[in-house]
Write a structure and sequence with these properties.
The chain is an alpha+beta fold and 303 residues long. The chain has helices at residues 37-43, 73-84, 124-127, 142-154, 156-160, 176-181, 217-231, 288-298, and strands spanning 8-11, 14-24, 53-60, 65-70, 98-103, 185-187, 198-199, 239-243, 249-255, 258-263, 268-272, 278-282. The longest helix has 15 residues, at 217-231. The two termini are 20 Å apart.
């Protein structure tokens, strides 16, 4: 997602050369900033208004980083959709839609505006507050865990083909919940679609390709907390539902120390803060389909 070189919007009476833009709404927000919409808003010091915001990231004429927050969400959404299709689109929000201009960028941006100094934080006297900065994803933690879940949701087919469904059926196992919890974990960096071989689900270090032991405590905790959301809905955006092929939905749920990604017609994947770089598949069993259906009913959906 990138704007054209000529694009600029007003920010603190300076021209802002637009580099990219993202949505900050209950149904779609940079999950690296938080487990839910209010938490993501709090990371930017913004109130979690119902309609959300558009975030326009760019540089001023001196090369300083700025994030312009606008309330014209549709304008930003159209621009993002156009850029994703490889089309040029002039993103020039009306000054009346600008909520605030924040120094710095809350997300990493790999491009820079031409013919201006390299990206840098604005002078503190001009900024008036500490600049925004991307969360640290160099070590495993909540931000990296959520980015890993994003990657799985975006590259579902790649991750799904690494899971052998036979590992979900344990020989001689009669407990339905155990069959649901049995799985394999793709070891390695969860933000990278080139995951390693399946490993043991109880963390016992079984040889690659061997079925994990059932009743993984982390998976059971996640499923229990996800079920609790049905009776006591969590903060807005903690459960999100988006389009998936074949009439299914892609579900994303987050909680304290965990992320879950699932297809309503398929299995689920769990990532835990307590298990760095591990991706834990969860078989459908007899309980998961009903859980996913119930979560989908209370999930936030894009307009």
């Amino acid at each position: 997602m990138a704007g054209t070189d000529e694009q600029a919007v007003a920010a603190e009476d300076d021209a802002l050369y637009v580099l990219t833009a993202v949505l900050l709404t209950p149904a779609k927000f940079p999950s690296v900033l938080g487990d839910d919409y209010p938490e993501a808003c709090a990371a930017l010091g913004l109130p979690p208004v119902a309609d959300g915001y558009g975030l326009v990231l760019g540089q001023d004429g001196e090369g300083a980083r700025w994030t312009v927050v606008v309330d014209d969400v549709s304008l930003v959404a159209v621009a993002i959709a156009s850029w994703d299709c490889g089309m040029e689109h002039d993103l020039s929000p009306d000054e009346r839609t600008v909520v605030t201009a924040l120094p710095g960028w809350p997300l990493a941006v790999a491009v820079a505006a031409p013919n201006v100094p390299a990206p840098h934080d604005p002078d503190p006297e001009i900024a008036g507050r500490a600049p925004l900065a991307p969360p640290d994803t160099s070590v495993w933690g909540p931000a990296q865990r959520r980015l890993g879940a994003d990657e799985i949701a975006q590259q579902w087919a790649t991750w799904r083909e690494q899971v052998d469904d036979s590992v979900f059926v344990m020989p001689g196992e009669g407990d339905e919940a155990a069959a649901e919890d049995a799985g394999s974990a793709a070891s390695g960096d969860s933000g990278d679609a080139d995951a390693g071989s399946p490993d043991g689900a109880d963390g016992s270090g079984d040889a690659p390709g061997e079925a994990r032991q059932p009743r993984h405590p982390g998976i059971r905790r996640v499923l229990a907390e996800a079920r609790a959301y049905i009776d006591a809905p969590p903060p807005l955006g903690r459960i999100r539902s988006s389009f998936a092929p074949g009439g299914a939905r892609t579900l994303r749920a987050d909680g304290p120390g965990w992320s879950l990604v699932a297809r309503t017609d398929d299995i689920a994947f769990v990532l835990l803060d307590d298990e760095p770089n591990e991706v834990l598949p969860v078989g459908r069993g007899t309980e998961l389909p009903a859980l996913l259906e119930a979560l989908d009913k209370i999930a936030v959906r894009p307009l």
